[in-house]
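Retro notes
What went well: the complex prediction finally ran end to end.
Inputs used:
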Amino acid sequence: QTVVTQEPSLTVSPGGTVTLTCASSTGAVTNSDYPNWFQQKPGQAPRALIYSTSNKHSWTPARFSGSLLGGKAALTLSGVQPEDEAEYYCLLYFGGVWVFGGGTKLTVL
Amino acid sequence: QITLKESGPTLVKPTQTLTLTCAFSGFSLSTTGVNVGWIRQPPGKALEWLARIYWNDDKHYSSSLKNRLTITKDTSKSQVVLTMTNMDPVDTATYYCAHSPNFWLLFDYWGQGTLVTVSS
């Protein structure tokens, strides 16, 4: 069973920078895994942020960026705002099957 | 604009079959590349990808649930239906459907979700 692993929780100060990562149990994450990132706030449906590693949707704030880092997919928030406090999920492709990570709870404190 | 809305029973008994409908507007499932997926989220837990159906009727399923899932589409009615057999209390979750415009860009538009509780 393929497992996608994210940090369970991270804390960042307002205005700071934080990187969330997404690892695959099958090995290094590559562009062929088409990493997607989603943000979810309590009581809301998830919102898409990043697709295909680093591409932003039209509504994605400029402070969010996606990349590959050390064999993992990464989501970096630069200049964090209080409204960025949320759960973040990555989604990876495994040959016809997609698997979400367990999510990272980001606290802005 | 693109909208999706899930509907179905809020309560099902163990061993029963769940049938959920995703009614959508603002796009056509006959457009090349377009697909609709289902995702669920147990209370307080992570998202789980379930299934995906493409404009050409290609279908993909979660490895762990593929024996219990069936996804179909009715392009003329702008609906996608997900059935899940042999429901168990661990299947209690909010079930979402979501639109994707192509293979690699997933779930840019989501429904509001529908909570399904499995209990006798």
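What we learned: The CA atoms of residues 53 and 59 of chain B lie 5 Å apart.
What to try next: split runs per interface for comparison.
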